[in-house]
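Hi D.,

Good news: the full-assembly prediction came through. Inputs first.
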Amino acid sequence: MGKVISQSKGDKLFNLFNYSIMSIIAIAILYPLYFVFLASFTDPDQVNSGGLLLFPESIYLDGFKKIFAYKPLWDGYLNSIMYTFIGTFINLAVTIPCAYALSRKGLAGKTPIMLLFAFTMFFSGGLIPTYLLISNLGMLNTVWAITLPVAASVWNIIITRTYFQSNIPEELLEASVMDGCSDFRFFFSIALPLSKVIIAVMALFYGIGHWNSFFEPMLYLTSNEKFPLQVILRNLLIMNEAGSRMVIDPMSLAAKQRISEQLKYGVIVVACLPLLIVYPFLQKYFTQGVMIGSIKG
Amino acid sequence: MNKLAPKQVMKSWQLYVLLLPALVYLFLFQYAPMYGIIIAFKNFNPVQGILGSPWIGFKHFETFFNSYVFTNVVVNTLKLSVFSLLIGFPIPILFALLLNQIRRQLFKRFVQTITYAPYFISTVVLVSMLNVFLAPSTGFVNNLITMFGGDAVNFMARAEWFRSVYIASGVWQTMGFSAIIYLAALSGVNPELHEVATVDGATTVRRIWHIDLPSITPTIMILLILGVGSVMAVGWEKAFLMQQGMNLPASEIISTYVYKVGLLNSQYSLATAIGLFNSVINFVLLIVTNFISKKLTQNSLW
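Then the structure:
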C-alpha cells in the first residue's frame, strides 16, 4: 500500500479509537479463556472468593487428579474420537465426489439436482419425522444414527463445488479426455490429488462438527458407554454433577463444594485441549474454506 | 443446454455414479422425513405406521393454537431470534470494517486469531462456561459485582436475563468467525479507490462509508436474507442447554417445546404439527425477504 500521506487529525483520532476498540475486543474474548485455564489449577478458595484476576497465588492440582481418575470422561473422549473419524470419513466420501460431479459444466440435469439439494437447506422434515425414520431403520443406539443422517451438508457441497470449478482448469479435462481418460480416472487420479486443500478444509469443517455434536448423540444414543464427550460434559457440568459424581471418597460437604467448582474449570480445560492443540493449523484452513465459499456462493 | 437427453446421460454415467451416494443420502435422510410430515395431519400410532394411521386434518394445529403455551412459546421464539439478528448481525460487519483499517499486520493477525477461537468451542462447553462465570456466589462476574458493592444476580436462573446472556454469549462466540466472510469481501476492494479518495482528502470514516460499505453490500444482503429466513430456527441446542426450571418463561422456544411434546411425552403427531408450523413460517420469511431484497437491491439467493 505504498507510503501513507501524512494523516489528518481526524484519521489519527480514528486510528487511536480503532486500536483501542480492537484491543478491548481481543481482551474481552481472551480473558474468559485465560481465566478458565488459570482457575483449573489455582487454589479454589482464591477462585471462589474472587481473588483470582491475573495470577494464581498457590497452585492446587487436586481437581486434575480427580479428573484423570474419572473413567467415564475418558471413555467419552475415546468415543468422540471414534465418531469423529467415522463421521468425517463418511462426510468426505459423500461430499467430494458429489461436488466434483456438480462442478462439471456439461452434466445433464444439473440445475434440477442442485435445486433438490438447495431446497433442503431451507426446509426439513423436522425433529419427530427424522427421529421416527432413524428408529424405523433400526439405527437407534448405533454409531450410524449420529453419522449417516448428517452424511453431507449442502453448504459444504456448494463450497467444494466452487473450489473444483475455479481450481481445476477446463483445458486439463479436455486434454485428458483426448487421451482417452474416463471420468472416474480423471476424478481419482487428477482432480483429487489437485484438491488436497479443499479436502483438508472439509475434513476440518466436518470433523469439528462431529467433535462438538451434542444433540444427535443425546437423542439417538441410549447406553451410557456409547456417549461421546459432549454428552458426558453436559451431565457433569450443566446438570451440575461434577462434584457428586467425581468425588466418591467421603469428604465433608464443604470440602466437596470447594473442589466441585475447580472440577468444572478443569473439565472445561480438558474438553478444549484437542482444539487448543490443532487450533493453529485449523485456523488457517477454516479461513481458507470460508474464503473459497464466499468468492462465489 | 442441460437437456436430459439419454445419450448425454449415458456418456457421463460415471459422473452420476459419483453423485449417487449424495443422492441416496438426500432422499433417505432429507426427503423421507419430509414425507413423514404427513403424520401432522394424522393420529399417528406407531403400530399402524405412517400410512395406516387415521387422518384427522388440522386438529393438531388447532390444539397447538389453542393451548395456553402457544402465545408464550411463539413470542419467545420470535423475540430470541429477532433480537439475536438485530444485535448479532451488524456487529461482525462493524468489526470487519474496523479490523480492515488496521495497518499493522501483526496486530491484525493477533486480533483475528483470538476472535476466531471461541467459534470452535462446543455449545456444551460454552454454556458450562456461562454457568461457572455467572454462578451466584462463586462466579467471576458476580464476584466483580459484589466487589463494587452490588448485589449478586443469579443470571442463569432468571428469566429476564436469559435473552441477554444468550445473545451476548452468541456475539462473543461468533463475532470473529462471522467477520471472515466480510473481510474476504473487503480484501477484494480495489486499493486504487482508497488511494484516489485519500488524495482527494477523504477521511478514513468517509472512505469506510463510501467505498468499503457499498462494496460489501451484496455479501451483507445475502447473509441478511439467510438470517431472516432462519429467524424461527434459533440455535436450539444452546437454548435447550441453558434451560432451567426458573428461566422457562423466557427460554421455552418452539424447538425445545417440540422436543418435550414429541420425544418426552411421545405425542408424535402434535409435535410434528408444531415443528411444521415453525418450518413453514421460516420458509415464508425466507421467500418474502428474498423477494424484497431482489426488488430493492437486486441481490437475491435465486
